[in-house]
Design a protein that fits this description.
It is a single chain. The chain is mainly alpha-helical and about 190 residues long. Helices cover about 75% and strands about 0% of the residues. The protein has two domains: about 55 residues, Arc Repressor Mutant, subunit A; about 120 residues, Orthogonal Bundle (Tetracycline Repressor, domain 2), CATH 1.10.357.10. The radius of gyration is 19 Å and the shape is globular. The chain starts with a helix and ends with a helix.
Length: about 190
Amino acid sequence: MSSAERALETATRARTRRAILDAAVTVLSQDPTASLGDIAAAAGVGRTTLHRYFPERSALQHDLGSDALERIDDAAERAHLARGSAPEALGRLCQELFELGDLLMLIFSDPQFTQSAAWTEYTASDRAIIELVESGHRDGTVDPELPPEWVQNLLWSLLYSAWQHASTEHVTKHQALSLCLRTLRKSIAA
């Protein structure tokens, strides 16, 4: 097999894996008891193909948890946390993370998704948030009485509330995100 053929096969495998993960989020966020067959159908692949990538449900759950961590770190990078004041950067981070709502609501709803050791360690995005809040303490833009870990937990709690509000109260995602951002700004103000 030539290097071009190997590269094409690798790209095809990556697209198939991504399609399965995306379909799993869509299907499982609507029905947590859905079968792997339901996920395969939503991904447009056969059950045999799905089982080649994820032999058991637990393997799929593990990879969804790992994928969520990667997407959180990617969102933190896109938010450019080193630019502007801490409240501005945290607002940008909320906007980026808000787009991951279905995935993160699914992940946080079932401890099976967060069983890997990676979920117990501080990630690059965790450290960046902590450093950002500490920077806000130093420059006077974040209430110094609020510990960085508290602000980080507040951010996740507000995002969860916004996702829930959008899904249960029939408000637009834009309205829910606006409420999240407003509450965050007022909560951390010095």
